[in-house]
Structures are given as structure tokens and as C-alpha cells.
Amino acid sequence: MNEVQERELKSFLRQTEGTPPPVFVGRDGVLDDIALAAWQVWEGTGGGMHGMEKATRIVQGAPGAGKSSILNEIARNPGRLCMEDGTVPMVLVLKSGDIQGPVDILRPLAEKMHPSGSREFMARISRNTGGEAGFGLGLFRFVRKRETGIEHAEPDADWNAFGAWAERHGGFDRPVVLAIDEAQRFDRVPEDPLSKLFQSLHDGCGLPVALVLAGLSDTEYSAGRMDLTRIPAGQKHSIGCFPEQEAEEYMTRSCAHFGIGTAGFEHEIGRLAEPCDGWPRHLHIVLKALGREALRTGGDLGKAEWERIRIEIMTGRDGYYGHQFSAEMKDAINLTARVMAELDRCQSRARIKYLMDGLHESDPRKYRFPVGMDADSFFVHLVHRGTLHEESVDRFACPIPSFRTYLLDQGGIVENPSPKPGPVGYTDRSATGNSIDT
């Protein structure tokens, strides 16, 4: 470990959960499909009408699955999206929390494409957009004018106005990948101006801009509320655990990045990573614990105290679970645990909600909902906490096996060592001890 690597490791150990990992592995299928989206909307510099209907991509998964890491990778290394003719798309990644309306997308895109001309674009649309809608843009504060029946002399904040401005500044020399992180936060009706902006892209507005929405496992649902419909299944990516080989690659390459010599200690590092189930956030916890010990020993793992590392990893993993185990889930722990117990056969959105309602009706005191929630809202809450994740079309599961076991244990439920015939074999320790079966 040289001085530069030591500084990088110390910086990594100070980072929060929102920062990208030191190395990026896997997710090739997702990156290839985003590259395909860029190709689909691009007709070349001398081509005619750009754009393609239904080219929107969805990247969704539980907290800690690595969705933001994917967006960070394509922003940092757009060459990963290089097309067959050598064209490298322009990538713009925005946070949903920074987006109030259309101008919060069009402004940064204009600044990235033609920085010197972006002020002109904002000045032109300023006459028709604005502060009453809450759009703050530095020197500009715009107000949406009431419709008066008089034709506007200046363009609205939409793709038509943006395309006309872009043409005056040389047009598009490559496709654009517009990626929105934490897109599950959007709660917009189809008539909302932001929804209309997304709909126009989704319907193929004639511009070479591919839309990627990344977020929690109900991002597809949020997109549907904005009327972004008929997205093919192959364009919706559920991000989950790494396969074993990629989990090993993550640890090997990360250690090499920081100059941590692993030769002769592969077995010990494998034992640390094995309980992670390939979950990216857990591997991140392992790497931090190993990194702290490497700093303590000057990079010599021969002096490492492996039990100390294991204890730190267990503490970190329990802390992650404690963070995901919300107050609402604690209030409804019997209901939460039973949902986990029945996931082998209640996997669709409707069946999980039906299970919740049925349990609540059978014993409202034992199987209570959190205050102010019903089956619909509690289902969404479980998705947001990473308890439920849509693995395929309308098939939900707990994305981390060890988290499911943790929640079962919190509810006093353990898997029977020799389950009776049938898909479910659990014992409820919280009440009578009878086998749970519905």
C-alpha cells in the first residue's frame, strides 16, 4: 500500500452510504441495454427525425442494491455506453429531489450541451414559466402565465422549445442519456407539466434523448402514474445480489485498488464475504472493516485480527438491518413477519395485500397496521424499506435472505428444521406455537 492508496483508503472509510464504490463490477446487461436505448433514439448527425417510442428504461431495486452506482458509472465513464460506430453518448444524471418541474431538467441539459448558450435558452422560456410553480434558477425566477387566449410569442419549457434552441447552436452531435436517480419519489398525475415532459420523451418527441428512471422497487409504478406506459419487460431491470463470481471480483479488485495484499488470505476474505449473500451494501461493509484493519496493520494482513473484523462486520450488518427495520414495521411486526413467512407462495402484489387484509381481519390486535396505513400504503412502505423487491413481473421477494431471517426472528418466527409437506414450514413463537399455515 503506497501513500496515494493509503490516502484513498482513508477517504473511502470516511464516506457515507451515498458515495459510489471504489470499483464497479457486473451489471453488464443493464449497461448494454442503456447503450441500446441511446442507439435507438439516435439517427446520426446527418439523420432525420431522432427518437423512438417506448425507449424508456427502468432500473429499480431495494436500498443498497447499487442503482446509484450504475448511474455514477455511466456518468463517470460514458465510454461504457459506446455504440458500434464509436459514438459515445452524453450522460446527464439528475436527482429527483432537485427537480420541481420541466425547467429543472432542461436547464442543466442546456448547460451541459452548450454552456455559452444556456443563458439565452433560459431567457427565452422565462416569459412563459415561473415562480408560481416554484422554479428557482439562480438569477432567474420564473412565473407560469395564465392562459389568455393570446398566442405566446416565446416558447414554453418543453422539448419543442429545447429542440429549436439546440438547432440554433449546432444541434445534437451525439445522443443523450438523461438519467434520474431516486425516481420513485415522483408522485405526479399525468397532467402535471413534469409528467408531460417525460411523456413526450417516452412517446418519441423527435430528439435523441433516452430516459432512464432509477429508484426503489416501485419506480415502475411511479412511472405508470405519470402515464409512461407499455415499457417492455426487457427494459425494466431489477437490481439485486451479485452472483458469487462478481462478489469475489468486487472484493479482489477493491483490495487491489487500495493496495491491500490478499495473496495467501483468499480463504479468510471469502469467509468474511460469504454471509453477505452477494448484497452490494453488505460487501461494502466487509470492505470497510477489512480496510480499517489493513490500515492498522500497515497493509499486512498477516497481522490482521480476523475475529475483530468479523465482529465489526456483524455490527455493521445489524446496523443496516436496524436502519431498514422502520418504526412502522416494528409497530406491525407480527404482520411484517407473517408476510415474510408466506413469501414462498404469496408473491404477487395483490396476494400480499390480500394476505395482510386477511390477517388483520382475523385478529386486528395481533396483526395491526401502522397508524394511518392500510394494506396498500404498508405494501409501498415495505418496498421502500427494502423488505419487498419486485424480482420479475409482479413477483415480489425479500431481496436479502439474511434480512428475511432477521425479520422472521424479530416476529418470533423460525423456520422449522423439518417442515411438514407443503411450501411453508414455520413456527410462530410469538403466540401459541402452532404451525403457521393459511
What count of helical segments does DSSP give?
17
- Give me the side-by-side strand order of the main sheet: 2-5-6-1-7
From the N-terminal CA to the C-terminal CA, the straight-line distance is: 57 Å
Give the total of beta strands. Answer: 12
The overall pLDDT average reads 85
Strand content: 5-15%
Whole-number radius of gyration? Answer: 25 Å
Largest sheet: 5 strands, parallel
Globally, the shape reads globular
Element order: H for helix, E for strand: HHEHEHHEEHEHEHEHHHHHHHHEEHEEE
Low-confidence stretches: 129-155, 417-424, 431-438
* Helix/strand/pairing category: alpha/beta
Helix content: 40-55%
Q: Would you kindly provide a brief summary of this structure?
A:
The protein has about 450 residues and is α/β, with parallel strands linked by helices. It has helices at about 5-15, 30-40, 65-75, 105-115, 120-125, 160-170, 195-200, 220-225, 245-255, 265-275, 280-295, 305-325, 325-330, 335-340, 350-360, 375-385, 400-410; strands spanning about 55-60, 90-95, 135, 140, 175-180, 210-215, 235-240, 390, 395, 415, 425-430, 435. The relative contact order is 0.12.
Model description:
- The strands form four sheets. A five-stranded parallel sheet has the order 2-5-6-1-7, with helices on both faces. A three-stranded antiparallel sheet has the order 10-11-12.
- The termini are far apart.
- 43% of the residues lie in helices and 11% in strands.
- The chain has helices at residues 3-14, 28-40, 67-76, 103-113, 118-125, 159-168, 193-202, 219-225, 244-257, 266-273, 280-296, 306-324, 327-331, 333-341, 349-362, 375-384, 401-410; strands spanning 57-61, 90-95, 136-137, 140-141, 176-181, 209-215, 236-239, 389-392, 395-397, 413-415, 426-428, 435-436.
- The relative contact order is 0.12.
- Helix 1 (3-14) packs across helix 11 (280-296).
- The protein is built from 17 helices and twelve strands.
- It is α/β, with parallel strands linked by helices.
